[in-house]
Amino acid sequence: MKKDIGLVSMVFLMGILMLGVGTKAFAEVNLGVNANAGIRADMKANLDQMKAERETFRQKLMTEKEDFRKDIAQRRSVFRERAQKMLTERFDMAVKVLESFQARIQSRIDKQKAEGKDTTAAQASLDAAKIKLTEAKAKIAEVKALIPDSDVKVTADIFANIKLGARDAKDLLKEVHQDMVTAITSLKANNDDNQGDDN
């Protein structure tokens, strides 16, 4: 009997649960029209919010893009100004200094030649320096021609060509300096030899 009471109570509880679930399902079916309207309203609100966020993001992106363009234009302007300054001030000054040194070395060579000293090595080094200085001047003029008049025309290719040309001109100026040092060393060696002969 106890088993029957347990079984009956279990069936009774199952029935109540079934009835509750069925009632809930029935209530949801009746509320389905109202529920769909609520879901649609939520979806529309979410969609409007997403559109607003997308528009805000788009405006922010456009602002950043414009700032980037202005920054690039400013960088181009700075690059063009620096390139002109480097070529006009630095390279031109270096060329002038090297030319004046060449004139001084030539006068020393002429002086030693008049004294009857052998200056062929010094003269050869000086002549090589003069040739390389002429090449450096041509390279500097070539690079100056590459620098555009306006900031709009500065492109990556022009930038690379200017940089490469400036590096070549710098290397040529270094070679000129080295040849002049060689000429001076040769002249000093002549003086040292003559001083050794005098003693």
Can you lay out the helices and strands and say which pair or pack?
Layout: H1 2-114, H2 120-146, H3 156-198
Helix pairs in contact: 1-2, 1-3, 2-3
Domain count, please report it. Answer: 1
SSE string? HHH
**How many DSSP E strands?**
0
Query: N- to C-terminal separation?
Result: 145 Å
Instruction: List low-confidence stretches.
Output: none
Gyration radius, to the nearest Å? 45 Å
For the sheet with most strands, the description reads: none
Structural class: mainly alpha
- What is the helix content? over 70%
- Write down the overall mean pLDDT: 81
Beta-strand residue fraction: under 5%
Please state the overall shape, judged from the principal axes of the Cα atoms: rod-shaped
Structure report:
By secondary structure, the chain is an all-alpha fold. It has one domain (2-198). Helices cover 92% and strands 0% of the residues. The chain contains 3 helices and no strands. α1 (2-114) crosses α3.
Notable characteristics:
199 residues, mainly alpha, single chain
